[in-house]
Design goal:
It contains 10 helices and 9 strands. It is α/β, with parallel strands linked by helices. It has 2 domains: 172 residues, 3-Layer(aba) Sandwich (Rossmann fold); 95 residues, Pantoate--beta-alanine Ligase, Chain: A,domain 2 (2-Layer Sandwich). It has a 6-stranded parallel β-sheet with strand order 1-4-3-2-5-6, with helices on both faces. The protein has a 3-stranded antiparallel β-sheet with strand order 7-8-9. The protein binds adenosine monophosphate (AMP). Adenosine monophosphate binds next to helix 2 and strand 5.
């Protein structure tokens, strides 16, 4: 496994691999790897000759009052896990390498960002789209793997790939969870012991709501109230949002039918957690 810190070296390496006819699977991350990331790497490993993992905590997708500085980082540990996962290249640039000067062209996401995290984290998806445009051009992959834990991100990346004609197949991967249902996240380390005990209630609330819909509840407002009440009763977290939309269009529905996403964000003392489920009614 090779760790690469510069853009030209990454580009030269993949060019060489491509010349030899190798396919490239790409897993972009912000590091502090957990089983969610490792599952993406495993999928990439299964279908590609070469696996590239990027580790970059991207400043342009964090708001001024968000946790860019505090975001957990441990490269040595990540390097070890990446090696065990059979990664061929770790692309690990620093901020100056990725953003050497102010950019002269900016990327602005127009659709599917006025809801969910997009409406709560201003500019977040512009930052995500910016760094992915760069990473796609640097790594030039055949397939790129993204977790459904960030379902809105999957929808935005789908738009980016189609609108800008990247010859890349987007591969969405199911959310990987702890045994008690909590979605794996690098930010879970910032939960207090008590909050960690409460946090499985997020997924439990989504599952309970899904069951209600399965039993015939068709009113979106009734479902949202149910989930909010469940979270308020079972956790000390502050609800940032609970929303239900069609997926992947992310449009409102009068009646719950077709493919849905039920998603939430809840703020605990030091970590804002997100979770969602998508399914067809
Ligand atoms: P991050 O490092 O949080 O930016 O995540 C990098 C990639 O891993 C994104 O595509 C995430 O959606 C994905 N990911 C993060 N957590 C999970 C999880 N629990 N299950 C599946 N994929 C995940």
């Amino acid at each position: 496994m090779k760790v690469i810190r510069t853009i030209p070296e990454m580009q030269t390496s993949v060019k060489q691999e491509r010349r030899e006819g190798k396919t490239i699977g790409f897993v972009p991350t912000m590091g502090y790897l957990h089983e969610g990331h490792l599952t993406l790497l495993q999928k990439a490993r299964e279908t590609n000759d070469i696996v590239v993992l990027s580790i970059f905590v991207n400043p342009t997708q964090f708001g001024p009052n968000e946790d860019f500085d505090a975001y957990p980082r441990d490269f040595e540990r990540d390097e070890k896990l990446a090696k065990e996962a059979g990664v061929d290249y770790v692309f690990y640039p620093d901020v100056r390498e990725m953003y050497p000067k102010e950019m002269s062209i900016s990327v602005s996401v127009q659709k599917r960002v006025d809801v969910l995290c997009g409406s709560k984290r201003e500019g977040h998806f512009d930052g995500v789209a910016t760094v992915l445009m760069k990473l796609f051009n640097i790594v030039n992959p055949d397939q790129a793997y993204f977790g459904m834990k960030d379902a809105q991100q999957v929808a935005v990346v789908d738009g980016l790939i189609h609108d800008y004609n990247f010859p890349i197949e987007l591969v969405p991967v199911e959310t990987v969870r702890e045994e008690d249902g909590l979605a794996k996240s690098s930010r879970n380390v910032y939960l207090t012991e008590q909050e960690r005990k409460e946090a499985p209630a997020l997924y439990a609330s989504l599952q309970a709501a899904k069951e209600r819909i399965g039993q015939g509840e068709q009113n979106p407002q009734a479902i949202l109230s149910f989930v909010k009440n469940y979270i308020e009763t079972h956790t000390s977290g502050i609800i940032d949002y609970v929303q239900i939309y069609s997926y992947p269009q992310l449009t409102e529905m009068d009646k719950l039918e077709g493919k849905l996403i039920l998603a939430l964000a809840v703020k605990f003392s030091k970590a804002r957690l997100i979770d969602n489920i998508t399914w067809t009614v």
